[in-house]
Write a structure and sequence with these properties.
424 residues; mainly alpha; Growth Hormone, Chain: A
Amino acid sequence: MNPSPDDSANPGPAVTPPGAGFAVFVLTSMNLLNYIDRYVPSAVKDLFKADLKLTDAQTSLPLSAFVIVYMLASPVFGAMADKAPRTRLIAAGVALWSLATAAAALAWNFWSFLAARALVGIGEAAYATLAPPLLSDFYSAEKRNRVLTFFYVAIPVGAAIGFTVGGYLGAHWGWRAAFLACGLPGILAAGAALMIKDPGRSASDPAPVGMSWGEAAGQLSRIPSYVYAVAGYTAVTFAAGGMADWFPVYLTRVRGMETAAAGSTVGMVTVVGGLFGTAIGGLVGERLHGKTRQPLLAVSAGSMILAAIFAAIALTVPDVRACIACIGFAQFFLWFYNGPINALIANSVSANMRARAFSLSILCIHVLGDAVSPPIIGFVSDQTGSLSLAVMLVPLFMAIGAGIWLRGWRVVPDPGTAASGVLA
């Protein structure tokens, strides 16, 4: 069976199953904790760098180790979803990543810290691979952009909390306290996951067949909307990963801010820009429906162009207040894509392929995205002696992502056309 990008081919349930609201609440709360735990290291980077005697490049390698394990484990959980209960896999993943985050507080050298952060990737892979398809099975195609927009609002909010709380705890009680405080609450969320009632896949979708990953990747590579969505997503993730990991340090070293102030500033602009950007991006994507071809790609491309412009200005304007304001605008436009692109991924395939589609997406955006961008920026900083030059990679890759989505908006056939299912 060839997965179809036509929404009418996989409309989802006609009536929203019971427990959908509870599932959205629990899974969104987990997404919040996910990004708190993910960005605590960025807020206290210089603190554990000094304590563990690391170089700039080494401070970013734990994030890369996390992302590498995360992306390699995601396809495994994508395949396991065909056989094992999804809610149990999610619960186990959340418990593991929470314990691993707390375990980083016990690190005594680079390798022990690296190992703890790598284990976080296994836990998060179970959750990130299975939560969006699970939510997609609760709701019909026309509601997925709205639901997934709400789900992904937790990313900037969680990242902001990670920056703010991590920076505050790090400044007052040390970086180890930050990891403990942010990691342990996830155990409660793991228990709540077991209370979600899995709605099952849409009755109109066939049960999963014994498809190899090669066959699945081959089918997905022939869906234009999926290919352009993931390709642009990869470039944007490169930029977002570098921005999240290095902008607090940029404000400290280049702009002269203190660690706590830099963390809280990035946290503030992330939560304000990200919250409104994600919400408005999803709303604009809905409003453009019927007014332009491929509205989800259109809003993502347009907003990313603006994000790249403001990020470049932030890194070149001399006044620190103007710099922070431009970072805020960059964050605002950066997050527009979250709901639309993930809804496009969900709608591009039939339900029995969604776990595989999200797994492959995770693999791509991380292996070529935020797994490599932080150490590349650190390496450029070490080699050139200029962090300002190194972080210019952030607006560059935002622009690349915008260009890919803009191209997709121009050439991807609209859903329902005869050419929409095959990429030439």
